[in-house]
Amino acid sequence: EVQLVESGGGLVQPGRSLRLSCAASGFSFGDYAMSWFRQAPGKGLEWVGFIKSEAYGGTAHHSASLKDRFSISRDDSKSSVYLQMNSLKTEDTAVYYCVRDENFLSGNDYDYWGQGTLVTVSS
Amino acid sequence: DVVMTQSPLSLPVTLGQPASISCRSSQSLVYSDGDTYLNWFQQRPGQSPRRLIHKVSNRDSGVPDRFSGSGSGTDFTLKISRVEAEDVGVYYCMQSTHWPKTFGQGTKVEIK
After folding, report:
1. With CB atoms counted within 10 Å of each terminal CB, which end of chain A scores lower, N or C?
2. C-alpha A88: how far from chain center
3. Nearest by CB to B96, which of A64, A97, A105?
4. Percent of chain B scored above 90 by pLDDT?
5. If you count residue pairs, one on A and one on B, with CB atoms under 8 Å apart, how many are there?
């Protein structure tokens, strides 16, 4: 069974940093890209970024509006993907989802989602 | 960025009746390989999104056959043939053809 379990969320003050983790199981992690999405309270879904598997170079792409502050990385030996968030703002308050993706577009993207972890940015 | 526009944003439906959600993109979603990467997601209250449909009309495993997707180019539709109570939630279309990936605003389906 595919499982994606996010952790690391919580309450953080504006301007501080936070690192989210996502532990994957139930599939061959190294064969898949991974993505992060977020959803502000009562709002819609927003793509945060994407990272290819290490076998394909581990290259990451981030939302243009977030790339100066957010950074995705992964460790295929630990079947884990991370989201480093710096200089957090109140508008970054959201549930952050870890999602299975694909290295090359074929229609098998976003088929599994984690349960999400809530990040609240407030003083 | 590709803008995805859904309508309606709110959809009250009687149990057992059909429902239809429209999704329009600001540019064609046909990729260089000839396929169209348009997904539909369901988000039930308090749950994570779940993919229902990929590449316009391909139903995901475990998705009831009352859900169907159709469309081409810039104009897409999600249909529920007979709405059941478990279908309550918000439905999003999302395009994967272009970077960045973008979603529609969401359509809230509720029972009358």
Report:
1. N
2. 15
3. A105
4. 100
5. 53
Which residue reads 């379990």 in tokens? A5
Using the beta-carbon criterion (under 8 Å), do A45 and B103 form an inter-chain contact?
Answer: yes
Cα dist from A78 to A19, A75, A81, A99, whole Å: 16, 5, 9, 16
Q: What is the pLDDT of residue A108?
A: 84
CA distance B15 to A54: 48
CB contact under 8 A, B96 and A111: no
Q: Rounded mean pLDDT of chain B?
A: 97
Residue type, A92: D
Partner-chain contact B41 A47, CB within 8 Å: no
Q: Tens of pLDDT along B24-52?
A: 999 999 999 999 999 999 999 999 999 99
Other C-beta atoms lying within 10 Å of the C-beta of residue A46:
18
Residue B36 CA to residue A26 CA, distance in Å, equals 29
pLDDT along chain A (123 residues), means of 10: 97 98 97 97 96 94 93 96 98 98 88 97 97
Structure tokens at B90: 């918000």
